[in-house]
Amino acid sequence: MIPNARSHKAGKVVERMGKKLNRQLVGSLVGCVHCGMCTESCHYVLANPDDPTYAPAYKADQIRKIFKRNFDWTGKVFPWWVHAQDIRTDEDLEKLKDIVFGKCTNCRRCSLNCPMGVDFALLNRMARGLLVSVGVMPEGVAVVSKDQWEVGNQMGVLPQEYIETLEWLSDELEEEFKDPKARIPIDKMDAEIVYAINPREVKYDPRTISDAARIFYLAGENWTMPSEGWDMTNFGLFSGDDELGGAVALRVYDKVRELRGKTLVLSECGHGYRSTRCEGPNWSGKGVPFVIESSVLTMLRYIREGRIRVDKVKNKESYTFHDSCNNARSCGFFEEPRELLDLVVTDFREMYPNRAENYCCTGGGGAMSMSEYTPQRLKSAVIKADQLKATGAKAVVTSCHNCVDGLTDVIRHYKLGMKVTQLVNLTANAVIIPEKVSVPVFIPMPVEALPLQGFKILVVDDEPDILAFLSAVLEDQGATVIQAADGEQALALTIEEKPDLITLDLSMPGKNGGYVFEAIRNNPEIASTKVCIITGKPELRRLIYERPVAPPDGYLDKPVNEETLLTNIRMILEMKHPVGHA
Amino acid sequence: MSETLRFVSDDLQLMALSFMAIVYMIRIRWLLGFKASRDRQAPSERKDTSSFKGIVYSWANIAMPWSMESTRRMFPFYLQFMVFHLAVAANITMSFVIPYAPGLMKPMIVVRLLQILFSAAVAIGCYRMYRRFSNPAMRLISTPDDFFSLALLTVWSFVSIFAAPNRPDLGEVPLMVYFIMTAFFLVYVPFSKISHYLYYPFTRFYFGRTMGYRGVYPVKRAAQPKPTHT
Q1: b or e along A547-564 (b: 16 or more beta carbons within 10 Å of the residue's beta carbon)?
Q2: CA closest to B31 among chain A residues
Q3: Whole-number mean pLDDT of chain B?
Q4: Domain A3-136: assigned CATH number
């Protein structure tokens, strides 16, 4: 009876909750004793003392009641006794959305203060994920998630925009040091460090990229930035979508593997660090065979090893440090930034409370992208504002791009007149430029040849999807691919490019594949070109083989899968190069 | 001692205990039926901690009020918690001692200490009930089970004050009420929030394991220096 009374979306949420539950989640769902110890650890509660609905236990209960009603038998038998309640309508889902997205930044401060070890943030993230799975989410979350799925980064930075930014930053760097080696290497193989960043840096703060590049250059590092998989942020952490989280993390890991990088260094971003360093392997279900570290640790090591020298007098202002929740409370990363600060600034003032007990910048958990909740976010930010003010510092340093935006908002709203900066900026500013910079020359390891490397293949098909699929598969195997979308273009390119092989579609507008095939065979200049027919019309096979010319070298019916395609292509090409291709 | 009192202090207790144990076993089996997620990432760079240390720290958290901001800031509340739970533990122990080792209850000092402890628990229980009603956030999150469990423990502690002398010769009613309440308590516990101690080792284990592995546990902090007056 209960399932029938639910809306379709509500039904899906309950169904998926059952699949998502693990021992940690269930422990947190049954372990709360409603003691209220968590209440005053939440900045929302502290800033809204008259609104009890901000209490972490209350917020968690909105998830817990669904669990109890559907999965815990006490709630199934005596729902009113334990406040078990089902979720039934789309309005219920909207209400839950406003709680889990609008009243909590998943900062985990309440989890750390729960005597029972109930991880409220874990529950909140699960609820977000369930809502996202049925399309109930703030618009900003939908937009950013879509960008990360489709464009490959959460700010929709296009590949050209990214590469161009790195190019002009390289030009500036080269100009500054008057050294052609002072550039940002892209997709360099076998680098010691592959440096991944937050797309915000490309879009709004390229100075952090050039500061990092300056440090890598001065340290004589063998480093690179990837052309793809460079976004180390991960909106899956905020949206609770583990699938997105895993896919985004894998994108970064795969690129490092492809480049055979030794260490993946992440620029200063709290949620990016947590997602890529701590959660990514769990979401993707795979371990990572290389080291992942924060750029803070890298910079600290350079100074300790004497690879760069710094003069802290260059940063004379008074600075305090804001611990990102994801760095400190979820990844235990809080001492290294302080050690580095101690080396690059003269006046450091601790903020209280600090490290894992610090308060959220109030822009965490994706809150910056949810404009509908901005008023309540800024109201709750009074706790952070008071904390900042009490330090008496002129600037706040943080190792998180999200916190940079969050803190900037808080400072502007509460008129604190402070600056926000990052450790990379301070380190780059404090660095002493030596008279001569020696950039070691690294000889890349010989690259293992891909099976189709060195082969030129012309792919001919009038359907763009098939053209793209065939090209991608062949390019992944190292082939140089040329494309033609019709018969005339195919003939012209065959004469001009002299490909090793042509994959040829038969049904095409204008000059069809049969005509093109016969023309190739009749032209002595290109007659020996290998041809593999790939057609969706097997009945045309007879017409091809009946032509008064040498038969094609291969024949495949559509749809063709990757494995079949490659097996046939290799077989055809090996006939041409029986001892392998040099 | 009447046969009825003997029955409620012995057979009835054993039956209630057995029932509780069976329900607990079912409950643990249910919890273990859910797969535990694991940490696939590399451990923290912090060398002074590990999953193991995190687990130990997490389990010991409750005995370290300085380890959490909530217990530091609400220390009186923490003290109440300690006294209340000690009283409950003493009460459960007493339900075994009276029928099976009554000699331990002979010294008057033991009886008086227990009565003081139970009285404190009653006072704390009453205060907590008041807090649940008067604090808007507490009222909002409290379920009928929360109120009933607290009331049950408070009344049980009150009854224990009179049962502690263990003098059936002066009248069996206090002991009879005490043992019947104890049996009810044992039967009710597995279905109520009072069974939180069953989950505590699990929640704290997994939270501590992850936090230790990631270098968050043991918590490090720089305390705010106290202002100096010259």
Answers
A1: eeeeebbbbbeeebeeee
A2: A23
A3: 95
A4: 1.10.1060
